Give the backbone structure.
Amino acid sequence: MASEGILLGYGNPLLDICVNGTEEFLKKYDLKADDAILAEDKHKPMYADMVETFKQVDYIPGGATQNAIRVAQWLLGVPKTTTYFGCVSKDKFGDKLTEKAQEAGVNVKYQYTDKEPTGTCGVIVTGAHRSLCAYLAAANCFTEDHLDVPENWALVEKAQFYYCAAFPLTVCPSAILRIAKHSHEKKKTFTFNLSAPFLCQFFKEPMMSVMPYVDILFGNETEAEVFAEEHKFGTKDLREIALKMAELPKENKERARIVVITHGDKPAIVAQDGKAQEFPAISIDPKDLVDTNGAGDAFVGGFLAQLVQGKPVAECVRCGHYAASVIIKHSGCTYPEKPDFK
């Protein structure tokens, strides 16, 4: 049984606005079918356009880290085993995020700003593909001094495991680094996600300042390939890439880094102690596939739920695949009331 506050995440809280879209709509806003980008000025009218154009619009609490933390919380089942930091505004979307996260049992400790509205993410699903366009807004206003609030830092100290997607590297890399260094100093476990190809390319420096503290690194095949290219690994072989990532410099020499690369419905690759293993995904009947958005976050949530209970890596991966297989049968990062993971 996991204890209260054992897992803490910091990320960009966003309210997902989800639609089943069309190729034409993607073209209109210059979006790719399988991509995650930050909104530019040309994308700002898109959110209202989505609501007007499509009959069915779902509003779901989102943001990569928050998704993973919610899924882990769902699987752990004991309220407040997870804690989450991020920045929102005191507006209707901020209220909705707080309400949904608390309903899920997550101990949310948002920082509030009046400079920007609560962040949103347009999720356009086309068949088995999903395009994400995030308008960070308030999420962009997170500052490291949120960690200076004694009750917040007490939650950092209480946690034994930490998870950050790479997205906040564009917002407050110093907060990620501070949590990562604390984890290292106290011999705890810090987990991190490559999150998107553009982060591997354009935020390489802050990403690599965090990397020496990363005990477990997640990414999907596209992110891994772009990372390998950026770091001149000279290979497109995912097993080799995973092994090379595991060997990148690490502060804690006593514990080898574990690298986990997911690959859609193909096996996940886990590199550990100089060996790369494959773990098959759970096959889903295409007719049961509703929405792949959040599948990667759900995988991480499933993995973390077992990790904090001291389970072996194979069991962590098995639960990751289970969680992803549940999420893709639902719209957005949502799930049934109770998990049936055995």
